Amino acid sequence: MRSVRAVTVTPGVPDSLRLVEDWPEPPPEEGAILVEALAVGVCGTDYEIVAGEYGEAPPGQERLVLGHESLGRVLEDPTGTLQTGDLVAGVVRHPDPVPCANCAVDEWDMCRNGRYTEHGIKGLPGFARERWRLQPKFAVGLDPALASVGVLLEPTSVVAKAWDHIERIGRRAEWKPMTVLVTGAGPIGLLAALLGSQRGLSVHVLDRNTTGPKPELVRALGATYHTATVPELDVKPDVVIECTGAPTVVLDAMCKAAPTGIVCLTGVSSGGRTINFDAGALNRELVLENNVVFGSVNAGRRHWEMAAEALAQADRSWLTSLITRRVPLPNYREAYAPAGEDIKAVLDFTQ
Ligand SMILES: [Zn+2]
């Protein structure tokens, strides 16, 4: 019987990261579309899973295949949804089995009961294996020109949802945003800034780093890079997209929005840290300025398609610069160890 190489962990067990040489070939029950892996992106969630702090193997299994940021090439699709050779990425989240009101209409990103499953994270095998399968509903085709950068589709889907929900909230009244502030210039922050610039907005990005590639990447978007604190910025943003999860930055971001401003929180804080904060002043400002603060996570099908469109329109060399390391599969451990000025590390299945 054929097998694939797969990067796996035993969830909950630190240092259990291992390349399994003879992982089972993906069974047809996983989906009709058979895909050959090209690349898998690594993010903070992967670090947490590798550290044993997060993650859940599929029912009845001990090990979880990692990888939720995928890019592959279609080997066969008997459903005719995609053609052999097409670039494809897999939607991360699947609806819960109940299903809840949102999952019932395939808005799995808005699941209400938490019983959804996620490839490479929660109850479904990930994409860090040489071949995987998809059902057509969870397969997103990409422009053929995106072979070297299409692995950015998953993080782009997250910011496409953030922008989609910002714009839906904006429609509660007349809405002509001019300025967006993005806090944090990691992959999510930079991609949020990209989508802001594609909307013709004046984009400001705040980050602590004064060196490395981030300042230049922001300037290349025609955006302004800041290293001051949020209160020090001479900007009144109509939109704030918070991507750090750092408690002080989150609170400062909530206070920074212009009247009728919308603040989207995307960073997950670890919790347990308390800071002194005037909740009454924040409440007063939100009420008197009609501001909205909301959280956003994951992405639905339409957001994946919006993200594929945004990547196709973006400057290819700018996107390439976001991928600061490409690690061949045999050296997989290097991809799962954070390195200094990384923006995005990618596990490369083609070398
Ligand atoms: Zn649900």
UniProtKB/TrEMBL annotation:
Domain Alcohol dehydrogenase-like N-terminal: 30-138
Pfam families (UniProt xref): ADH_N, Glu_dehyd_C
Matching Gene3D superfamilies: Medium-chain alcohol dehydrogenases, catalytic domain (3.90.180.10), NAD(P)-binding Rossmann-like Domain (3.40.50.720)
Domain of life assignment: Bacteria
Keyword annotations of the record: Metal-binding, Oxidoreductase, Zinc
Name of the protein described by the UniProt record: Threonine dehydrogenase
InterPro entries, per the entry: ADH-like_N, Glu_dehyd_C, GroES-like_sf, NAD(P)-bd_dom_sf
Co-factor(s): Zn(2+)
UniProt domain Glucose dehydrogenase C-terminal: residue ranges: 147-349
Keyword Transcription among record annotations: no
